[in-house]
Amino acid sequence: MEGLTLVIGNKNYSSWSMRAWVLLAQLGIPFEERKLRFDSDEWDAGIGRWSPSGLVPVLWRGDLAVWDTLAIAESVAEWFPGKGVWPEDPAARAFARSASAEMHAGFRNLRSAMPMNIRSSHPGKGMTPQVRMDIDRIELLWREARSRFGTGGDFLFGRFCAADAMFAPVVMRFATYGVACPPVAQRYCEAVTAASAVRDWCEGARAETEFVAEDEPYAEPPRQ
Ligand SMILES: N[C@@H](CCC(=O)N[C@@H](CS)C(=O)NCC(=O)O)C(=O)O
Fold first, then answer.
1. Helices 183-194 and 129-149, interaxial angle, to 10°?
2. Which secondary structure element, helix H or strand E, spans residue 66, and what is its range?
3. What is the pTM of this model?
4. Residue nearest to atom 17 of ligand 1 (CA)
């Protein structure tokens, strides 16, 4: 098979990039990483070449581009059928796909009021009644997945799968904004945070120094 290249944005900020990267890395699927930093000359020069949609992530296999996180997960599932991108059990798989699609299409209040910012800490910021409703729904999803399908491991469906990659940035947000969770959700957050691919991504995020004002509603730009 031709090698894979994953085009991503800043590790500190790009939640969609994190999902695709963590999925590949945690499942042991080799790929090269190409980072285009937001608001940079390399972004302006490269995004048209690397991304049909103008967004990241994009997964390239030779000259074939797959853009959009869910399409990436589905293509990876097709190309690597033995890697467990989705759970084997049909009921678990249907739930995992539904939860992933719900994440992909929804939770807009949480996503906009609590943008992913791995290296920062803003406890208490961003919480509104609408954000609380998003969080309650996510915790219910997690609890149901864990109780119905989670017996074989610490992730939503036991073993790590694409649904966990989809929710990994939510776990990062809960840490940044100090969202307290009930025990089942808390244990799940700990499992995600401890996953090797998540740790590697976070290490990269903490090493970044770029400040992207659009993703920093709760901080002043650093003085030059
Ligand atoms: N639906 C897309 C969303 C991708 C997306 O919004 N990516 C953001 C980074 S997390 C982006 O490329 N932003 C750059 C821009 O808006 O110019 C997916 O699932 O991949």
1. 80
2. strand 64-67
3. 0.97
4. 55
DSSP H or E run through 61: strand 58-61
214's tokens: 């659009």
Ligand 1 binding pocket mutation candidate from 11, 12, 14, 16 (most atoms within 8 A of CB): 16
55 CA → ligand 1 middle, Å: 4
Q: Are 170 and 192 in contact (CB under 8 A)?
A: no
Which parts of the chain register pLDDT below 70? none
> Could you give the C-alpha distances from 41 to 36, 37, 46, 58, 114, in angstroms and in order?
9, 8, 8, 19, 27
**167 neighbors 107 (Cβ within 8 angstroms):** no
pLDDT value, residue 100: 98
pLDDT tens string 145-180: 999 999 999 999 999 999 999 999 999 999 999 999
Q: Would you say the CB of residue 169 lies under 6 angstroms from ligand 1?
A: no
